[in-house]
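Workshop exercise sheet. Pairs work together: one partner reads the sequence aloud, the other fills in the structure field after running the prediction. Swap roles for the next sheet.
Pair: D.N. / O.F.
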Amino acid sequence: MPVGVNVGHFFRGVPADFAETVRRIEDLGFDGLWFAEAYGSDVFTPLAYAAAVTSRIRLGTAVAQIPARTPTATATTAATLDQLSGGRVVLGLGASGPQVSEGWHGVAYPRPLARTREYVDVVRRVLARAEPLDHDGEFHQLPLRGGTRLGKPLKSSLHILRPDLPIQLGAEGPRNVALAAEIADGWHAMFFSPAFDGFYREALDAGFARRGGRPERFEVVCTLPVVVDTDVERAADRVRPDLALYMGGMGARGANFHHDVFARMGHAELAARVQDLYLRGEKAAAAAAIPTSLVEEVALVGPPGKIREEIGRWESTVVGSLAVQGLPADLDTLATAVL
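Structure field:
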């Protein structure tokens, strides 16, 4: 199974040895290099930087936020970067959540699936470059049906290197996963538990049925926490704070889609307790409440031999490739365990 690295987004600043680290990730044979964004560092700038210091590794957004940019801006950014990198870009898109969409970008969040469907359609039309763009949608009007009335349909002046540049959707809920299967070239998953493979297969199959079948190149990528350590509990301790953050603090109470993932997995009571602790500011207690057994459902932790054995659980699911979450300090040890 191909394994890449999902760096995520930067906290406080960019690591001093970032260029050397990126080159090392490619030299070790990792499949892809993915970046994310929240409300700090953006997703495309580090990807462009990585493109300049590498030559072979795939470069993906996991994910670019839909409310952050117009669909034409996203399409032209991805297409430009694809040319500069020699055709290595994978465009992952995600709806984000109401706190970031409305609080940071000032974009209304309701009806995220309908918004995503229209957004992907416009991106594809920009990339196809078949005709000037004339789109009168629910969320986007191109040209604008108003304003000065001087706008006119335009076609990208950049000749697109790959009109079929792959588009993936970051999704967690079953309806959004089905949407990825229906309209995208892949699904980028997180907090994927192999025990719930059947649940996700059903969601994907529902989308493929609406599409008329599964496209040959459809890919499922899973971002997965991996901590290599001779002590399993010590390794799990490094994952617990992130799980507590996503389960308890990402989004408002009642509108935290990561929280809902763990509730669907049968951990509703635990997820509620973690959320209560986290929202009260008791972050250490929230992390400590997460049992090692749950960490091992959605992460690989422990010695290299244990990780090599357990990675097979993901290989037998719908997942086609993995992306190690974060930027591990010891890339050589990680490579030994997962490649």
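Discussion prompt: The chain has a mean pLDDT of 96. What would you look at next?
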